[in-house]
Amino acid sequence: MTQVVTQRLREAILNGDLKPGKRIRQEAVAHDLGVSRLPVREALRHLESEGLVVIRPNSGARVAVLDFEEYVEIYKIRERLEALALSESILRMTDEQQQVAARLATEIEPLTDDPIAWLEADRSFHLACYAGLPTPRLLHMIQGFWNTTQHYRRILLTTFTEEDFACYHAEHRLIVNAILTGNTRAGEELIRVHIERPRLRLSTHRELFDR
């Protein structure tokens, strides 16, 4: 039951139904899902470990909030962390894992009219690129950073033009090419620039953090 509650809350946060700063009342969640408060409490602790929820004594749980400086810091960390992850993954990916990444890079391209679907596909593509990592620790760290920035990625997407989407898709294809050719150096630089781009883009839209 805890897994069900965790998944429902995770989806609500990542899809934007529960926005940053929103208080999550255990009794309300338990009532809505028809469960006791125990699995809700356990689910919130799990989501806190994923970076989606902040739990404070005497004030309960709230959806995690980032200010602009925290967002920039996380993206700078991601630029380096995911470059390392991709390099390590490229060296170990199986043919099947490579083909999954290539397929996901193609499947995302027709989804530009559906922001939620595009974001989900983008996340799936990037995580597929790290499928060759030998241990889960690095991937867990990356997933945590993706979770805490999901709301701001969703807002940033509202500023995208057709040219922006085309640029992102082209970069995805270049990353896939680096994977297929085993070019770790190219992969590192491509993913760094790919992550740097939204950081710089949002730096010109600081007003979006007020949403």
Automatic annotation (TrEMBL):
<dbReference type="GO" id="GO:0003700">
    <property type="term" value="F:DNA-binding transcription factor activity"/>
</dbReference>
<dbReference type="GO" id="GO:0003677">
    <property type="term" value="F:DNA binding"/>
</dbReference>
<dbReference type="InterPro" id="IPR011711">
    <property type="entry name" value="GntR_C"/>
</dbReference>
<feature type="domain" description="HTH gntR-type">
    <location>
        <begin position="1"/>
        <end position="66"/>
    </location>
</feature>
<protein>
    <submittedName>
        <fullName>DNA-binding transcriptional regulator, GntR family</fullName>
    </submittedName>
</protein>
<dbReference type="InterPro" id="IPR036388">
    <property type="entry name" value="WH-like_DNA-bd_sf"/>
</dbReference>
<dbReference type="InterPro" id="IPR008920">
    <property type="entry name" value="TF_FadR/GntR_C"/>
</dbReference>
<keyword id="KW-0805">Transcription regulation</keyword>
<dbReference type="Pfam" id="PF07729">
    <property type="entry name" value="FCD"/>
</dbReference>
<dbReference type="InterPro" id="IPR000524">
    <property type="entry name" value="Tscrpt_reg_HTH_GntR"/>
</dbReference>
<keyword id="KW-0804">Transcription</keyword>
<dbReference type="Pfam" id="PF00392">
    <property type="entry name" value="GntR"/>
</dbReference>
<dbReference type="InterPro" id="IPR036390">
    <property type="entry name" value="WH_DNA-bd_sf"/>
</dbReference>
<keyword id="KW-0238">DNA-binding</keyword>
